[in-house]
Amino acid sequence: MNKIILKAYGKLNLALDTIGKRADGYHLVRMIMQTVNLYDVITIQEDDTTENITLTTNRPDLPTDQNNLIYKAADLLKKEFHITKGIRIHLEKNIPVAAGMAGGSTDCATTLVGINSLFSLGLTLEELRARGVTLGADVPYCLMGGTALSEGIGEILTPLPDIPSCPVLLVKPNIDISTKWVYTTLKWQDLTTHPDIHKMIQALEAKDLHTIANTMENVLETVTIPANPIIQTIKDTMLSLGAINSMMSGSGPTVFGLFESKEAASIAYYQCKQNYPNFQVELTEFVGQKQVQNQI
Length: 296
Ligand code: ATP
Hints:
The chain is α+β, with helices and mostly antiparallel strands. Helices cover 34% and strands 28% of the residues.
């Protein structure tokens, strides 16, 4: 049976700024996105027993119908290209859910890539992006991967030099954050500080990890942290355990820290596992654009 197995990588934000709002309510953002080596595994195969899309997953709390971005991606291509065969998809979820790591968007992007390949649709990356943005603002970035500047509502992408590799510690607290609530609560006109994106791009070009880490800033922390002080506690823990810097990703609640040495990161990992036994704790690293695009 024709079958394809792909990795759908999560992302972190090294910088996140909002610079305005569109009439339709979408915020205009300037973000530096970064792929991280934490991934879902998506298996897609033709299904001769039905004409339908069948989605299964190891996470019973996730929808398996039209409310799942995987289903939406499959449905979009199935209808556009009149695919009459059934499509069976299994999602092995490893990326924390509703965590600010674009878990749904990356699954969506990877499903587009997988069906394009499995059914030989011949769509280019550009053509996949055009379809992806109709399903989610972060989907075009997830198709690109690596280090990138994301502007507009997330659809204007500029690839940047890969960040120097270093250990990355992630802690996802056991709290639910609604991205919509964070953006609607944010008073972007009142923000007094903004990330220095220009400086970060220069630091990426110079491969200067310390300046990159010390330039990290996320304006959404001003909303999410006061409502969820545990996020600040985790940031402080990472700093006290030797992180060069630590920040919340996206609208949260995932906190990540960059470390200089594997030893320090490993000690911090075990300490965080002990401090936060109910939270998802992962020790990982960054992934470059080539590695993401090898699948396309
Ligand atoms: P972002 O960083 O883009 O804001 P996120 O990491 O905060 O995303 P997701 O993990 O994408 O959030 O999940 C948000 C919601 O989307 C979930 O509560 C879930 O019900 C829904 N969802 C739909 N499809 C998926 C999917 N494939 N994986 C995870 N969540 C999905």
